[in-house]
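assembly run, all chains below
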Amino acid sequence: MSFFKTFINSPVGPKTTHFWGPVANWGFVAAAMADIDKPPEMLSGNMTGVMCVYSALCMRFAWMVRPRNYLLLACHASNETVQLYQLSRWAKGQGYLQMKEDKTPST
Amino acid sequence: MATSKLQALWNHPAGPKTIHFWAPTFKWGISIANIADFAKPPEKLSYPQQFAVTATGIIWSRYSMVITPKNWNLFSVNVAMAGTGLYQLSRKIRHDYFNEEEAAALKE
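ok done. output:
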C-alpha cells in the first residue's frame, strides 16, 4: 500500500507531466502494434524511418533529462524495437532487402 | 559581441553539444515526414499513428516546459506535431465519413 502511495506522490508520478508525457509516447508503440499486420504497401517508410532514429535519440534524452525518466526510456526502447520491425517489413515490401537467392535468410 | 552570443548558445545547457538539443531537433523529422505524407491518399493514412502523433504533440508541449532545462525547441516541435497530426486526422476523417455521404447521395 505504501509503495503505491510513494508512486502516486513521486516527482515522476501520475500527478505530474513527467508521467503523462511518456504515457502519450506509448501511443506510438500502441499505434505500431495496431498496425503490425498491415500490408507493407500501407506503411509509411518516411514515418517509420524517422521513428527509428527518433526513438534512439529519445532513449538518450530520457537518461540525461532531470528528473531521469525510466518510463520514457522503456517507452522508446519498445518503440525502437517495433519501429525497426515495421521498417524491415516496409523495406522487404519495397524490394530493398532482396539478396542473392542462395543466401540463407536471417529469420 | 556576436561571438560571445554565439558562444553562449553553443555552451547552453540545452545547446547543440547536448542530447537536449538533438532529440527535439530530430523530432522535427516526424512533422516533416507527416508533411511529406500530406500527399498520400487518405486511405493509406493510419488512424492509430496520426492519433498518437497528435496526442503526443499536445501532451509534450506541456512537458517541455516543466523539465530541466526548459526546452523551447521541444515545445515548438511538439506544437508542429500536434498541428500536422490534426491535419492528417481531418483529411482521413473527411475522406472516410463525408465522402461516403456524397458517394451515397450520388448513387441515389
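The radius of gyration of chain A is 18 Å.

Residues 12-93 of chain A form one domain.

not gonna interpret more than that til we talk
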